[in-house]
């Protein structure tokens, strides 16, 4: 491809040997001036697919905003910024600024005053700057929506459309989306001109470089199952996905107590904390990262060896998105999904979507795990002895022997100390389960479901996961039983089976949700969801 020499030099240093499919198809179209809709998941090289043409076509002698890139999360915005800065390493006067919530707006205003050519931001904060008149878009030549379906799912459609109103008519628009629901097609029809379609979904959905397995296990035994699998397979870097922030918090604490080197990211953590955790995971200082889907959106770390689905994702495309984070660049990756009885329906739907059977396996026995851990301990002892100087240790040993303990007694005592599993209770039972899947449909008939009105909505930055976490933190209920969530500007709705209604009213009403008082009431007329379908 005919691109600037400065960009060629930078991407060669980044290790580009051959363009990915999405890059091969998208870059020429953008260089020719077309609008493009890219149907693609994370991990296919999307940032370079739009970043290279943008850097090639912008005029960096002009200190005005010429490209705007919107992303659903702060983490993805930062990742796009960092990768584009690497691609622009040898491009003179290239300035790229990120704008997102959770970061002091005064700092962003100062950065915008330095007159960057490229803005990477989340929809809400970008719109905030437009309204403050600290950001002007009349010179924009490129508009990019990355993870467009996720942004709409998070309730950003109105913000995105408001941003489009501030753009010039003469521009190129690129939209990446893993799925193509009606709102995405509406955006394309309204704001794009004869877009070219690029599709690379099928290839990733049947990725032969990921060994996919699932395990039937009771929900209360999932942590034990995960612990055993981590010890048997011993991945250098592993991602663990939970469906809610509450479960991420609980699981992280449980694994830390069992001696697992792990940390977490989700939307309620401060931005600085999330970025610090991601950096440590990327550098290998953290071996296991526990996350929600939204927090890990756009996460692209090439050396992830395994993905664990602690909760089965509620949508099949989330599963494809999760496992796409392993098995990268020709390496073999592994995905492990822990399935409780109520989650078998999702597994069958996932198998249908990916057009492949996921292999059922059994959780290793407790004795097998102990054998593997003992072998690992012996390896570490051998490696330590072969690489160290032990003058101080021999002094301690001689003192210990003087207490009338034999060398054998000292060694076995030290091994006992090394093997101590902190505060974790030992579960040596066989935790594999056998159960058959029986279809159980949620009845949406208004006479057979309870519809709740909640006094909080978009004005309080409420999301679907916030409502799920709020209800599940107080009531023992499955995600699948909280249905038809609709988040409007000033209030929200959700439906549950009638058997949960009284308990939800008793335990959730007049409690705190994101620092605000949540007031619930029964909605007499169930309404069809406006923004979300579950």
Briefly note the structural class of the backbone: alpha/beta
CATH topology name of the largest domain, in short, is Rossmann fold
Per CATH, the superfamily of the largest domain is P-loop containing nucleotide triphosphate hydrolases
End-to-end Cα distance, whole Å, is 43 Å
Radius of gyration: 26 Å
Supply the number of structural domains. Answer: 4
Helix content: 25-40%
Tell me the fraction of residues in β-strands, as a range: 15-25%
| Major β-sheet annotation | 7 strands, parallel
Uncertain ranges: 202-207, 439-444, 525-534
Helix tally equals: 20
Shape: globular
Give the overall average pLDDT: 85
Quickly give the CATH architecture of the largest domain: 3-Layer(aba) Sandwich
User: How many strands appear in the DSSP assignment?
Assistant: 20
Biggest sheet strand line-up: 3-4-2-5-6-1-7
Reading off the top of the CATH hierarchy, the class of the largest domain is best stated as Alpha Beta
